[in-house]
Amino acid sequence: MLEGLSNNLQKALSKLKSKGKLTESDVQEAMREVRLALLAADVNVRIVKQFVDKVRERAIGQDVQKSLTPGQQVVKIVHEELTELMGGSEERLRMAAKPPTVVMLVGLQGAGKTTAAAKLALSFVKHQHRPLMVAADIYRPAAIHQLEVLGGQINVPVFQMGTDVDPVTIATSGIEEARKQGADVVIIDTAGRLHVDAPLMEELARIHQAVPADELLLVIDAMTGQDAVHVAESFSQALPVTGVILTKLDGDTRGGAALTVRAVTGRPIKFVGLGEKIEALEVFHPDRLASRILGMGDVLSLIERA
Amino acid sequence: MGLFDKFKRGLAKSRDALFGRLTGLFHGRKLDEALYEELEEVLLAADVGFETAMWLVERVRRLAREQKATDGSELPGLLQQAMEEALEDNDPSMKVAETGPSLYLFVGVNGVGKTTSIGKLAHHFKAEGKKVLVAAGDTFRAAAIEQLMEWGNRSGVDVIRHTQGADPAAVIYDAIAAARARSADVILCDTAGRLHNKANLMAELAKIHKVVERELPGAPHEVLLVVDGTTGQNALLQAKSFLEVANVTGMIVTKLDGTAKGGVLLPIVREFHIPVKWVGLGEQMDDLEPFSPKAFAEAICQAPESAS
Ligand SMILES: Nc1nc2c(ncn2[C@@H]2O[C@H](COP(=O)(O)OP(=O)(O)OP(=O)(O)O)[C@@H](O)[C@H]2O)c(=O)[nH]1
Ligand SMILES: Nc1nc2c(ncn2[C@@H]2O[C@H](COP(=O)(O)OP(=O)(O)OP(=O)(O)O)[C@@H](O)[C@H]2O)c(=O)[nH]1
Ligand SMILES: [Mg+2]
Ligand SMILES: [Mg+2]
Prior knowledge:
Distance between the termini of chain A: 29 Å
Strand content of chain B: 5-15%
Largest interface: A-B, 43 and 46 residues
Oligomer: heterodimer
Bound molecules: guanosine-5'-triphosphate, magnesium ion
Number of strands of chain A: 8
């Protein structure tokens, strides 16, 4: 994943690495290429601008560190800023003091919410929890059936009330059902919707009001382009989003969404989806991804020691 | 309602976000370098990609010179012209079999809107008085078959299906036989979503393509790559890979009812010469429109009130 960005950034920075002395035009030239690499990777235009300005400023004004060449220092700055952009360190899910913990998944159509619901459920099972999935998507054809098939594959019960009941009622009844069954985690799958669809956004707010979620996770397709910024902004303004799940990172995505979403929402990316299989979910590590993007194991370990 | 009214309405939100800003930004300013630089940023923000953005700005510059335009307010009109030129060769018509059924194969990465687009097109062709069959060739995803059957119910179209886990090529084979027996005019074949970098899944698609070719001479009459309009530059890689294994002949760009501009269709058309045939503008049966370069360019470039 992220090969394109990785290759282009490495190309942009490799010329600097070996240089003993950096002129301002060396830095300008490298920053121009970093800009193009980030744009080609679908990082939001606005964020690219801020990022490049910040790196440039730090690179030109840098203090001389004896252990690193100036070129290596620029790589170090880019690495730090990339990590920062993606949120620093990894973050786990917040569990309710008094069960059940409620996890609600929201996002655009086809982002991967229903699949992520099952993936999360499986990971809860593996950690000795007893999850219940709630089918609150009454719009998409066969959405309930899809959740039931996935639930069947991992032996996790699915609560549903058909498609003629208000999703708010389904969610509240789902919590009651969880208490009855002794389930300690409730995962609510909601219908995909556009962030500009006011009535449907309002519906999510009503669900959240009725059953306040401990984790309200925004599911975003990693292949999303420049629109990621609007999506992230709108969802996090309309709802108290607590984190992000980035899906389909198993593609050769340019990954711009990964760099954009955190900066826009201020919320951490908690998980990444790496395939259609129910096991294909991983905790997100910003620093590791930044290192992978820069792909400079040797330089980076040098930098860590500096 | 005019042919592209819905298209324009659907794109109104995109337009507000993009050129609502554009017109405001450029009004009363001089057409100079600073303005062209801002135009480039606006285009990048529409997922047009760096090269095509440069190309468009260059075209706009040339058109401005030719037409002696000097005022910023003329920019949307010039850009519209440039975009229409970029899409000049785009032929949205669907190839039809000379005799027997026309078979259309739908391919694309996960969750882009393949199944939904088939549901909408089944309705469209049926409304034209054609006899339509749908083949449930996604035997992989949970409830993919049930989803397609619900679309079949809505439009009153038969769905040829096996069970989950069956061989997709066998389903399509059966659909071709059924189409012959029932003298159907159109066969719409769904396939499972697959990422273009998964070699084994792409090979499976190549196999489906081969079976279709063998069983129905002249088929597939169209191989439609469905692209999510919110996708960024990754869509170019999708186009390239699907073109290689499945000989893609056209595109459907979906989800243009949001704030995404679908700008990535421009570099795809320019670089791969894959025409856009349809655009998806919602989740309902009627939310599909034939693609028109003029409507697209106009809807994107002109402020809502001046869109005729
Ligand atoms: N390759 C890959 N495919 C994924 C991943 N996550 C989900 N998918 C696929 O993406 C498609 C859409 O996933 P869903 O879970 O149905 O998406 P959704 O957000 O629930 O969709 P709607 O309910 O229609 O809004 C399916 O084909 C999934 O198998 C992932 O991480 N990698
Ligand atoms: N807003 C909007 N939603 C759409 C459009 N087209 C499809 N969708 C929605 O996108 C989601 C995914 O659509 P599907 O038709 O299941 O996509 P697919 O490509 O068949 O997905 P897989 O089979 O899982 O790969 C569904 O929730 C659809 O309702 C569109 O033009 N606009
Ligand atoms: Mg779903
Ligand atoms: Mg499908």
